[in-house]
Amino acid sequence: MPPRPSCAVRCPGCRQLTAQTGLCSISGQRFCQNCLVTCTGCGKQVGPGFYVASPVDRMPFCRDCQQPCASCGQMTPIVVKCHTCGAQGCPSCTPRCHVCHQYVCKLHGGSVKGCGHIVCNDHDVRCAIGGEVVCPACSEPCAVCGRPYCQDHVLTCSQCGVEYCSECVRISGLCDTC
User: Fold this and answer.
1) Which element (helix H / strand E) includes 17?
2) Which long-range contacts (C-beta less than 8 Å, at least 24 apart) are formed by 61-68?
3) What's the burial of 46, exposed, middle or buried (CB within 10 Å: 0-12/13-18/19+)?
4) Rounded CA gap, 137 and 132, in Å?
5) CA contacts within 13 A on the Cβ side of 133
6) Is pLDDT of 37 > 90?
7) CA distance linking residue 120 with residue 108, whole number of Å
8) Would the pLDDT of 1 be above 80?
């Protein structure tokens, strides 16, 4: 084993020997320059274990810059607001609409049955036949009448083999086009 230089210290983050160190503002520990990050919120230098990466943009935030989420109680570095009512939450409990990418609370958006996409009330599309929620990102409107329809109200034309809303396929099994 080669002799250890007297000026080098072992970084507690990466376990490498280094002479290029800096202090973590939270713990007071010495870390190598590669392990230290600058907090996006306050500008402090912090080492591994003393910061979290934002779930939105992966930027580092120290423990001092985190706060409990008003909605779910988890510690979070970022607070987001519902674009409809302004209710605050963290990105974990306040998802984004799949269409407009705005944050929405549980009152102003929800998960679409089947695909699981989150859709805000502004982009809520309903089946023209039964009123069920239809995902605007996953569902094409009926090619005959142009209205949205859900999987509960779909029929396939026996001649052309294309799926249409159940009101555009007749008892004979043919679509209105055929």
Assistant:
1) strand 17-18
2) 62/25, 62/26, 63/26, 64/26, 64/39, 65/39, 65/40, 65/41
3) buried
4) 15
5) 18
6) yes
7) 6
8) no
